[in-house]
């Protein structure tokens, strides 16, 4: 029995820890406690199974592994983006966007649903936080939709699904964490996720359009008396055309001598400033050049769009790293809230408190994952997972479909941070062995996690919406009517069409990798043609040991078994923990660049120096 446990300790540990997580125990403490408990068991069983490589001094590596989390620059972007999102949410930007875009699409059937999708996309691109998006839109747009007789299931499904766009639309926190765990660039992850994210937004709008055709009474247009901004769409179109004209003119004339990226930035900035300045002048100077609708749309939409460019544009153009982009976004959010006179000490304190809690939450999960990873690698758990996944039928497609199902099920119970820090590092070796592009793999996982946020009965987005939707009859203050409660089953039914869209999108991205891998076209250098030669420290050809630190769950902290260096004629061994020798220096008396046995070329006579062939004299 003991032998059986020793040889199957890896699956026993994995199943035990996952069961404790699914039961509901705190993630960070469950991971750390499971890692330490099975470490003790593994040390005691190490003399029975050669697959277990655990010994007590290995515990001393934990301080260095945990400190490695502290100086991870990529993860520093998480508190920046969280703080930016919370400041924007508390400055009531979502309220302004929903009101303005709802007025813009008001005359169209399903206009409020279109507004919810588009505002969800804008909030996702600025806040990156699902809870903030769902709660903000639920509090603002759900009562309005119910007031004007929208189908409750359709309304709640649209709001919940639009809020989950923060999972996949850059600068999503999911994509930042995924890039860190996959060991890839956050910028590449953002570029790769852009087309699938736009496709999801477009498909949501197509679903709304289909509903307005098939069930027009589910999504009526706003009555004329509620359109407080009036008409004026033609004025907005003319302003947009003028801005495009200014962009093209300045791009080809004023900024023609600059690099293409810089030209694009300055030309777009000039056109945007023109539109904003004209709208502000029209409002404050009573010029009456623009309609009230056009004026309001420009004034409300340009600041968040400028903030999106400040964050994503600088990252895509290579001007800033994701961490620097997050810092600029947080600063821009503070400025935006200050300009709107909605930045107070209480708002700032609430945002800082929430950001600190989330950062501590992520940090403790990472520490627990490092403790878990040390033990799991020590009992060859990574090898067990890799062999299990590589044995799946269907090769690359079979692997992706199986992982999609597993992550989807786990996503119904666990937060995406937990899945990213626990599961993703275990899946990476098998994905690399199958030759799967890791950016492609990360985007598939991101869409999958977005789907799990919508799935009954454990979808987090559904929980957020349920917490703020009316649970009993309520009186609408505007219309004076008594409106019915929103049932939980209506929320679940409303999410089903959007879940189907998500699954179709996952299949589409798997079938057409080019939707993601187009990010490679951004590079003008072929990595296969780049040759990097690392000089050796000694006379051998092995290049010395590897000094890289482990990553993911902490990586495998166990070096390779001792091997004989191929270029070492003395048969000395290098176990991956010793410093290389200082051999290979030319013998005294030879000129650099000449080897033994070659006749040196004539060199100018060197000044006479001490005779090094004799021992020194101390007379």
UniProtKB/TrEMBL annotation:
<feature type="transmembrane region" description="Helical">
    <location>
        <begin position="12"/>
        <end position="45"/>
    </location>
</feature>
<feature type="region of interest" description="Disordered">
    <location>
        <begin position="537"/>
        <end position="619"/>
    </location>
</feature>
<keyword id="KW-0812">Transmembrane</keyword>
<keyword id="KW-1133">Transmembrane helix</keyword>
<feature type="compositionally biased region" description="Low complexity">
    <location>
        <begin position="565"/>
        <end position="580"/>
    </location>
</feature>
<keyword id="KW-0997">Cell inner membrane</keyword>
<feature type="transmembrane region" description="Helical">
    <location>
        <begin position="190"/>
        <end position="214"/>
    </location>
</feature>
<feature type="transmembrane region" description="Helical">
    <location>
        <begin position="112"/>
        <end position="142"/>
    </location>
</feature>
<dbReference type="Pfam" id="PF06808">
    <property type="entry name" value="DctM"/>
</dbReference>
<feature type="transmembrane region" description="Helical">
    <location>
        <begin position="66"/>
        <end position="88"/>
    </location>
</feature>
<feature type="transmembrane region" description="Helical">
    <location>
        <begin position="355"/>
        <end position="379"/>
    </location>
</feature>
<feature type="transmembrane region" description="Helical">
    <location>
        <begin position="399"/>
        <end position="426"/>
    </location>
</feature>
<keyword id="KW-1003">Cell membrane</keyword>
<keyword id="KW-0472">Membrane</keyword>
<keyword id="KW-0813">Transport</keyword>
<feature type="domain" description="TRAP C4-dicarboxylate transport system permease DctM subunit">
    <location>
        <begin position="14"/>
        <end position="515"/>
    </location>
</feature>
<comment type="function">
    <text>Part of the tripartite ATP-independent periplasmic (TRAP) transport system.</text>
</comment>
<dbReference type="InterPro" id="IPR004681">
    <property type="entry name" value="TRAP_DctM"/>
</dbReference>
<feature type="transmembrane region" description="Helical">
    <location>
        <begin position="297"/>
        <end position="319"/>
    </location>
</feature>
<feature type="transmembrane region" description="Helical">
    <location>
        <begin position="438"/>
        <end position="465"/>
    </location>
</feature>
<feature type="transmembrane region" description="Helical">
    <location>
        <begin position="495"/>
        <end position="516"/>
    </location>
</feature>
<feature type="transmembrane region" description="Helical">
    <location>
        <begin position="264"/>
        <end position="285"/>
    </location>
</feature>
<feature type="transmembrane region" description="Helical">
    <location>
        <begin position="226"/>
        <end position="249"/>
    </location>
</feature>
<protein>
    <submittedName>
        <fullName>TRAP transporter large permease subunit</fullName>
    </submittedName>
</protein>
<feature type="transmembrane region" description="Helical">
    <location>
        <begin position="154"/>
        <end position="178"/>
    </location>
</feature>
<dbReference type="InterPro" id="IPR010656">
    <property type="entry name" value="DctM"/>
</dbReference>
């Amino acid at each position: 029995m003991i032998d059986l446990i020793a040889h199957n300790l890896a699956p026993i540990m994995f199943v035990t820890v996952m069961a404790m997580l699914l039961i509901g125990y705190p993630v960070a403490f469950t991971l750390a406690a499971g890692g330490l408990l099975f470490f003790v068991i593994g040390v005691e069983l190490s003399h029975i199974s050669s697959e277990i490589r655990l010994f007590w001094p290995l515990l001393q590596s934990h301080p260095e592994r945990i400190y490695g989390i502290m100086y991870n620059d990529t993860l520093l972007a998480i508190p920046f983006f969280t703080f930016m999102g919370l400041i924007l949410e508390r400055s009531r930007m979502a309220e302004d966007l929903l009101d303005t875009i709802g007025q813009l699409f008001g005359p169209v059937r399903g206009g409020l649903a279109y507004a919810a999708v588009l505002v969800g996309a804008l909030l996702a691109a600025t806040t990156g936080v699902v809870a903030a998006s769902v709660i903000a839109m639920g509090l603002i747009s759900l009562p309005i939709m119910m007031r004007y007789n929208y189908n409750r299931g359709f309304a709640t499904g649209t709001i919940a699904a639009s809020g989950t766009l923060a999972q996949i639309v850059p600068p999503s926190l999911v994509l930042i964490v995924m890039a860190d765990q996959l060991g890839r660039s956050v910028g590449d992850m953002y570029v790769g996720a852009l087309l699938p994210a736009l496709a999801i937004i477009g498909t949501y709008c197509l679903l709304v359009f289909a509903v307005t055709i098939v069930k027009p009474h589910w999504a009526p247009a706003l009555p004329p008396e509620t359109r407080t901004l009036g008409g004026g769409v033609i004025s907005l179109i003319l302003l947009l055309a003028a801005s495009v004209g200014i962009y093209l003119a300045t791009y080809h004339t004023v900024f023609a001598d600059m690099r293409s990226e810089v030209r694009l930035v300055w030309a777009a900035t000039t056109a945007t400033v023109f539109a904003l300045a004209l709208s502000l002048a029209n409002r404050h100077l009573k010029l009456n050049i623009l309609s009230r609708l056009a004026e309001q749309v420009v004034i409300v939409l340009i600041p968040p769009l400028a903030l999106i460019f400040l964050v994503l544009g600088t990252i895509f153009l290579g001007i800033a790293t994701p961490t620097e982009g997050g810092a600029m976004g947080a600063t821009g959010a503070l400025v935006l809230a200050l300009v709107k006179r909605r930045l107070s000490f209480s708002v700032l304190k609430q945002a800082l408190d929430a950001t600190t809690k989330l950062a501590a939450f992520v940090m403790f999960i990472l520490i627990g994952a490092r403790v878990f990873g040390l033990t799991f690698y020590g009992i060859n758990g990574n090898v067990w997972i890799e062999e299990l996944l590589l044995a799946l039928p269907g090769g690359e497609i079979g692997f992706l479909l199986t992982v999609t199902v597993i992550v989807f099920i786990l996503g119904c119970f666990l937060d995406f941070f937990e899945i990213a820090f626990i599961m993703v590092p275990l899946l990476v070796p098998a994905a690399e062995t199958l030759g799967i592009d890791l950016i492609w793999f990360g985007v598939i996982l991101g869409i999958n996690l977005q789907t799990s946020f919508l799935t009954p009965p454990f979808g987090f987005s559904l929980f957020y919406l349920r917490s703020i939707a009316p649970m009993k009859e309520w009186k609408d203050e505007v219309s004076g009517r008594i409106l019915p409660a929103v049932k939980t089953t209506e929320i679940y039914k409303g999410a089903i069409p959007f879940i189907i869209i998500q699954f179709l999108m996952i299949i589409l991205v798997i079938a057409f990798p080019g939707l993601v891998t187009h990010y490679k076209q951004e590079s003008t250098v072929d990595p296969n043609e780049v040759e990097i030669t690392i000089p050796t420290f000694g006379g051998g050809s092995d290049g010395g040991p590897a000094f890289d630190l482990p990553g993911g769950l902490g990586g495998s902290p166990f070096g390779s078994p001792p091997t004989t260096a191929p270029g070492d004629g003395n048969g000395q061994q290098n176990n991956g923990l010793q410093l290389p020798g200082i051999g290979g220096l030319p013998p005294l008396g030879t000129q650099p660049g000449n080897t033994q046995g070659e006749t040196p070329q004539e060199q100018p006579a060197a000044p006479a120096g001490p005779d090094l062939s004799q021992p020194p004299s101390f007379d």
